Amino acid sequence: MSTYQSLNFAEKIARIDAHWSPRVIAEMNDYQFKVVKLLGDFIWHDHLETDETFIVIEGQLRIDFRDGHVLINAGEMYVVPKGVEHKPYAEQEVKLLLIEPKGVLNTGAEGGERTAENNLWV
């Protein structure tokens, strides 16, 4: 007999210590669902080959664009279209779910010290 178990976002996020370090919690086809804690400013970057979905679980996330910004509150989501340069910012800690294809780096092609190791599960 199979055992079926749901995933609890809060329980998974509680296992993450570092900010800006996404952890995979599930996969669907070629997409990964990642939980992450954010605090402070990130870097300008884009993803030339894919859209990126941000679903805020707790807190408020601001995503800056070169021509404006969007605020995403708990219970809300936003899809950044592929190729659009953006910079996430969290004045206070934000807990969120990212949905993106396998292999997508959090810093896109920008790279650098903020690039998180990919495909780490929690």
List the SSEs and their pairings:
Layout: H1 9-14, E1 23-28, E2 31-41, E3 52-58, E4 60-65, E5 68-73, E6 77-80, E7 86-101
Antiparallel strand pairs: 1-2, 2-7, 3-6, 3-7, 4-5, 4-7
Task: Tell me what you see in this structure.
With 122 residues, the chain is mainly β. The protein has a single domain, classed as Jelly Rolls (Sandwich), CATH 2.60.120.10. The protein contains one helix and seven strands; from the N terminus they run H-E-E-E-E-E-E-E. The protein has one helix spanning 9-14, and strands at 23-28, 31-41, 52-58, 60-65, 68-73, 77-80, 86-101. Strands 1, 2, 3, 4, 5, 6 and 7 form a seven-stranded antiparallel beta sheet that branches. A hairpin with a 2-residue loop joins strand 4 and strand 5. The longest helix is centred in the N-terminal third of the chain and has 6 residues, at 9-14. The radius of gyration is 14 Å and the shape is globular.
Instruction: Briefly note the structural class of the backbone.
Output: mainly beta
By DSSP, the count of extended strands is 7
What's the rounded overall pLDDT mean?
Answer: 95
Shape: globular
> Residue ranges: pLDDT <50 for 5 or more in a row?
none
State the end-to-end distance: 25 Å
Radius of gyration based on Cα positions: 14 Å
CATH superfamily: Jelly Rolls
Order of helices and strands: HEEEEEEE
Strand content: over 45%
Query: In this structure, how is the largest beta sheet organized?
Result: 7 strands, antiparallel
- Indicate the CATH class: Mainly Beta
**Number of self-contained structural domains:** 1
Number of helices: 1
Query: Which architecture would the CATH scheme give at its second level?
Result: Sandwich
Helical fraction equals: under 10%
What fold name stands as the CATH topology? Jelly Rolls
